[in-house]
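Look over this one:
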Amino acid sequence: MAAEQLGGIRSVDIDPDGVFKYVLIRVRPAGGPGPARDIVRGHAWAEYHADIYDKTAAEMEKQGYDCECLGGGRISHQSKEKKIHVYGYSVGFGRAKHSVSTKILKDEYPDYAVTWADEGY
């Protein structure tokens, strides 16, 4: 049942264009280890990576989930060119595993060129 509930959570919620901060978040049903799902959230409105995490965690907690931030970075999303590039790090949360974030983004945007690098901020 819990795994089915996790399937209802959107894997990706990012801005449609631009360069912005993002976080990789692990979500699981509240109150125990159980199954988990990693999600990507990224928005230009966020001054800090923690702004994105705090908003997402609050939304998930209302739905009965616990969250853990696995790190962050930046995303360059060019929708006209169908390109997404993941890079950089979060000062507060550390560098996310961009390879994991990239896989999640590729699943959501199968017709895009999705790349990553550890360089840059």
